[in-house]
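Researcher: Quick one. two chains, 556 residues in total.
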Amino acid sequence: MNKTENNKAWFLVLPVFVLVAFSAVIPLMTVVNYSVQDIFDQNNAYFVGAEWFREVLRDPRLHDSLLRQFIYSFAVLAIEIPLGIGVALMMPTKGRMASLCLILLAIPLLIPWNVVGTIWQIFGRGDIGLFGAALNGLGIDYNYASNPADAWATVLLIDVWHWTSLVALLCYSGLRAIPEAFYQAAEIDRASKWAVFRYIQLPRLKSVLVIGVLLRFMDSFMIYTEPFVLTGGGPGNSTTFLSQTLTKMAVGQFDLGPAAAFSLVYFLIVLLVSWLFFTTITHMDKAK
Amino acid sequence: MKMSKRKTLGISLYILFVLVPIYWLLNMSFKTNEEILSSLTLWPQHFTLANYEVIFSDPSWYSGYINSMLYVSMNVVITLLVALPAAYAFSRYRFVGDKHLFFWLLTNRMAPPAVFLLPFFQLYSSVGLFDTHIAVALAHCLFNVPLAVWILEGFMSGVPREIDETAYIDGYSFPRFFVRIFLPMIRSGIGVTAFFTFMFSWVELLLARTLTSVEAKPIAAIMTRTVGAAGIDWGVLSAAGALTIIPGLLVIWFVRNHVAKGFALGRV
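Model:
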């Protein structure tokens, strides 16, 4: 892209800069401020340096929920990305059916997150929900409210139900951008279905998949509402992810200092993983 | 043709998987509480609209929908207004710190809302915006503005530079060119962006709930109060949930033809 050098472009970016500064930088500074002080009330605050960070990094609650979080986000990506690509490949390519499929697929994305939780809270119950009743009817002892493994699996299933559509929509638009000539060339070469996928479709999907993986990673890593509504983080701690641990700490116990330190560590982890992913992808591009 | 049959079967199964939980919600919303709790029925035996009547007759219920719609619309407008010029700048010019600024914007999309709960609450209380629609709209800009700039920048880079240059030679000033020529060219990009900003603002609960108490309380937060002394009012809860799906359906209906083109033009 041949861009021209022009510092006046800053004027166009200024509104965004001011808005985001107001809604991100000021709050973030407040968090930093809390994370290094011990605050008793308005007038009694003591500088404690890295004390809270040390405390938080040693906190077993953080380790547990961090581990759960990584396993969860990994599972989310491992299921949703291939499934999303598969769904996109199966979708009709044009006409009314294509529009209909798009609309139906997009429905879960537009339901408020707590309603998603509510839907599955009802749907998964053994007494009044179809899903829970069906599983119990098949002789599987399923109860998301008392069995940790069931609860974990249900939260994962909700996420798959909720978000695979996003990956599918992204891939679908990526697939539509492939010129017909590519497929014709493949046909002349008598390429197999797999070869078409591997050498034509997949490379063309890369840019939308990067968006998809990043969005899914970030959002699954911040998951809060669905487990909150469904199980409240239980049974035990099986569905307590990072955001739950943090909100419990900040709002429940009002431990401002440690909570702020936790926040920053949390933020940095998301940032680091996203950055690593992003840089790896761009380097792979350059290597080619 | 065998292949396409398998595809149709596959996509139908997946759509079934998407729709069944939603059907169950609708099913419950037309039942009485006695029926919900007494037995499992695949469709309402005693069809009733009573649950919906509760919502439409009680201001503390339906005001939630109005509040949510208000702050979501404000958010979409604000986001587009600030993101459009910025995306243009990123797609057309090189300027001091552009790459860093772009990445910094994206990092805000990565900030977990839970991190910002408390500072947001304090910030908006101190400037007297607590419990107003604009507070939620501004707070949601935190994750919507970066996303909007990101998507729009992709679309704008797909428009050839020659168009800009020709317009300037023809004597268009920048604002006139931008509004008259450039914006109509990226219509579908604006549609897709509006869809995504609407979506992420409409579905968010954590920040919206924290920043409001009575006046601007979103429907999602009101739904939590059906837990009463007599247990959960499943019927009304289902009806309220079913109604939250409608605005989203309308929006997706309007942009359905753009979404397909949507990201095809976009790039990372």
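The radius of gyration of chain B is 23 Å.
Researcher: Thanks, that's what I needed.
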